[in-house]
Amino acid sequence: MSALLERVAGAPITWGVDGSPGWGHLMSRDRVMREMVESGLSATELGPDGYLPTDPAELQEFLAQFGLSIVGGFVPALLYRQDRIDSELEYVRRASRQLASTGSRVLVLGPSTHHPGYDTSVEMDEDEWAVFLSNLRRLQGIVGDAGLQIALHPHWGMAIETGRQIERLLDSSDVGLCLDTGHAYLAGADPVGIAKAARGRVHHVHLKDVDPAKAEQVRSGAVPFRASVIDGLFVPLGEGGVDIAGTIAALEAGGYQGWYVLEQDVSLTAEPAPGEGPKADAVDSVAYLRGLAVAGG
């Protein structure tokens, strides 16, 4: 694990930057990028469409000010509804070209549902699974033609959420995964077990830790996912119930060489004071990872 910190990136959502209407206060991109660097992060995901410059030359010039690179971007797509697939794949084609132009090698695919947001879980029936897998193969071709790998992101409130759904996906396709430790834990799955079961197929990792009591409220349906995120569902690494150390150890033992993205979703009500808010949490998370790197040799 000695080179672990060289492969730790940030994500704008860790600073409260989300594309959903009414999500919360939006910090300036200059401050977010600067605080990423000050927290010890060396790269970033792209974030919501339009938050960072969309023109490749402008984006490269902007990131050069901070010495950052782009290591991926979250691209949602609804794949089990055939009547919507043409527009969904066209969006993926555009997003693939944009990500490829940044030098990124990974597209993080969010398997969307027909419900808005992430508060409603779905269970695809057999016909929907067949359509999903067929369209996933089409999407893999589009992303591959752009020179990128797909890292499909199992996610609360998306079509692939639970451990059972992840297992079926792995058995039914050859798609790569984005292992999100927080979403796996929230859905009742074991991130360490997923890391081992998907050995060689994990192309990207989102590191999240989760407040166990708040997670149980979401699982039981007592509190919607989005409301819980706003209330602090995700906590700095090492402060929640997720076996972060075990997951990283399993990935490294399995030969994982990709990026670990610190992705701790938060919602802000106002501009944080200097050094406080998301930056303080990011600093704590990086310190935790630094401890793991030292302990790992």
Question: How would you explain this protein's 3D organization?
Answer:
The protein is an alpha/beta fold. It has one domain (4-295): Divalent-metal-dependent TIM barrel enzymes (TIM Barrel), CATH 3.20.20. The chain is 42% helix and 12% strand. The strands form 2 sheets. A 7-stranded parallel sheet has the order 1-9-6-5-4-3-2. The longest helix is centred in the middle third of the chain and has 20 residues, at 126-145.
Segments where pLDDT lies below 50 for 5+ residues? none
Backbone CA Rg: 18 Å
Query: What is the quaternary state of this protein?
Result: single chain
Distance between the termini: 6 Å
Instruction: Describe the largest sheet.
Output: 7 strands, parallel
Work out the helix count: 11
- CATH topology, by name, is TIM Barrel
User: Beta-strand level of the residues, as a percent range?
Assistant: 5-15%
Q: Give me the count of strands.
A: 9
The CATH class turns out to be Alpha Beta
Q: Give the spatial strand order of the biggest sheet.
A: 1-9-6-5-4-3-2
Number of domain units: 1
In brief, what are we looking at here?
This protein is of the alpha/beta class. The protein is built from 11 helices and 9 strands.
Describe the structure using short key phrases.
297 residues; globular; TIM Barrel; alpha/beta; two-stranded antiparallel sheet
